[in-house]
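yo

u said u wanted the structure for the complex thing, so here. seqs first:
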Amino acid sequence: MSNNNGNIKALEVRVKELEEENNSLSGRLEEIMLLSLITESFEAISDEDVLLISVLEKISILKNIPYCACYEIENDHYKCVGQYCSYYTKTPCKGVVTFSEELLKEFDTEAVIRYQLKERPNSITFNTTEKLFEPNEVLALTFHSRKIKKGIFVFVSNGNVISPFAQELMPYHQIIQMVIEKWDRLSLLKELQELNYKLEERVEERTLQLKESEAKYRQLFDMANDAIYLWELGENDKVIGCLQSNDAVRQLTGYSQSELYHINPFDLLASSYSSGERKDIEQQFLKKSASFKASFKTKKGIIPLEVNTRRFQMNSRQVIIAIARDVSERQAFEEKLIEAKNKAVESEQLKSAFLANMSHEIRTPMNAIVGFSELLSQDVMEEGEVKMYANIIFKNSMHLLNLIDDIVDYSKIEANQVFIVNNTVNINELLSDLSVNMISILHKSSKNHIDILTHTPLTDKEATIIVDGTRLRQILANLVNNAIKFTHDGFIELGYDLKSEGMLEFFVRDTGIGIAVKDQKKVFERFVQLKDEKVIHPGGTGLGLAICSNLLEKMHGKIYLKSEPDKGTTFYFTVPHKLST
Amino acid sequence: MLKNKNRHSVFVNQHELVYYRMGHGEPLLMVHGITTYSFIWRKLVPLLEDKYELIIVDLLGCGDSDKAIDVEFSLKNHAHILSQFLEHLHIDKVHLVGHDVGGGICQIMAVRFPDKVISLSLFNTVAYDFWPVQPIISMRTPIIRQLAMATLDLGAFKFIVKRGVYNTALVTRELMELFWYPMRTSEGRKAFLYFSHCLNNKDLVEITDQISQLTLPVLIIRGDKDVYLSKIISEKLHQNIPGSQLEVITEAGHFIQEDVPQEIVAHLHTFIQKYR
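structre next:
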């Protein structure tokens, strides 16, 4: 019997041992499960409050703690952050617990508070009459997080069941630490999200502004009168195509944006440009900024454009903005303007030159005529004197007459009223006639020492041609007079040669003062007289050679000269060798 | 699944009770146990509804019924609520069919309100004090600990369900969804845990004598492979209740409605017909 009792006792001890083992095992299982479940919630839950409640629920259920809560403490105030009370239905079951002031003060100083409620019955008051819950042991653990400067987790066990908190509080600390870390992460995440949200808002706002401003600029772009292109450049500054163009481009060129998209602007250059000119324009175009004029092919024909370009970087693309304006009207206008201006200047000069020359040219012989006429009528003179005065008056009158003839001639030319009247002329006779006259002129101007030579290589038959004899004589006489005027020694040769092109080339050669190269072209212009110290007053209107040149033009001929200063001058002119049949 | 068109609800003491009502014939009140709710009867409905009027209730705190925990979820109180529930439905007498702790509730109803009960059928029921629910020892009792943990983890819950079904192939995802449904919300979990905390075998111990004196027909069906409840319970009930009928089905576990719906319906029908 006693043996049986001993056996029973031993068995009871063994049962107790096993129960304890079982307890410890289930306790470990609880902790493992709690941690694993809480980790699971951390992954699934992103709302701080939901997270807290979920963790508190798990602690409550697995640790069999009816009241689990988290409070934020601020001085002597406390606010429930979240709680799980297994004996209340309503969630959240706020306002269930009241802490005593003494306990609140303790929260300030103690990190871990643990006591039997019956030892300090007034420290926590539960506003419940629930008989299933008999508040037993209190465990309070303080913490702080980013958001909660001072907080406390409160656990209250149930006296109904044997469930003291384990001696080891590690799992509680561990879980609280996990919760806080997760909170901090979430709060950081939230802040980040808020910042993100704000940023997005600002971006949206800015985008809207940008859109508005873009619309505004697009409108300006489209409304502009000038054609605006945006060309994109590729490798080696090769133009890829037109990224954008405005309405004015379509109006000006007839090309649509889609057509321009793959067009190289240089292909549109007018075909009249040489390859060199094209290259110039291309170089201009590719510069950082440039302004040039060029004519381009369009669907509406070739249009001269004034182009202003600027090259820049746009979103890593090299682009050139080109603003083009149709200058065809302006160009035509400018041309007209220049022409008109030139004409105005010319006639102004003409007038002044004419007046300056004429006033002098006319006054000189007139003075002589008036002066000597006066002398003739006043005094009693000798016959010789009278003759001399009359002679002077005559000479000056003749000079004046010549002058007037010239002016009239030139006026006629200017007014396009000179008509060429052809008749049969023997140029050999004409030259011989002129040389007789020359002798007389040389004699009169006391230049008898100058020899007169003639060169008439053609027979009389060959030398009889159809030409305006009067004008031919006028031209030759003019050249001869000039030669006499500027020659002081030597000879004057008068002649012609038959040139292969069926032209007769007349010449008047002198050994006079010559004409400097720089002046050689000028001598055919109107009112030009070369100044030379040896010729103090050459006389004449300065119209002579201009008249010659004009006349010859009408006679299908040309006038030109060869000259060497101090050696002499040869004037050549041509007329067609048109034989009279 | 039970059809929504048959779903009703009624307020008893300001708490909503959800129930399904279908079929024609003598009324059967079907009372589920803990960890389940009305769905556990679904396989029996098509087999019974052409013979009986079925009233399938979600106990307070279970299924879709009110999750308020300011009411005591003791078996005694559940029995009281169900008796009020029948009054609200104007049903005078019913055949009681209970499973698990639902069987305990039915026992209390049969004892307390014998006028309302025609017959009593108990499937894998609790009785007396042969079930581990005493709160004092609950911390050391694996099944209650398991239940508590299981509310938080579908895996743990599945483990419980699997152990309760003989033919484990029947534990499909769909079945787990049905079991897990109330555990999705904090209220559901809290009510479930509250229900288990409220379980106290004193409610059944105190009617031990009255059970032995029952005169109404009693059918006891036991799934032989029920690992949660001892077979002593069924045997003792059968022993103590004169004229009671005990059926033991070998290939069935705790959730016997999942394993062998046809067999239990056959027994039930035969039983009811016999005592008509």
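Residues 39 and 178 of chain A are 9 Å apart (CA to CA). The first strand of chain A starts at residue 67 and ends at 74.
cya
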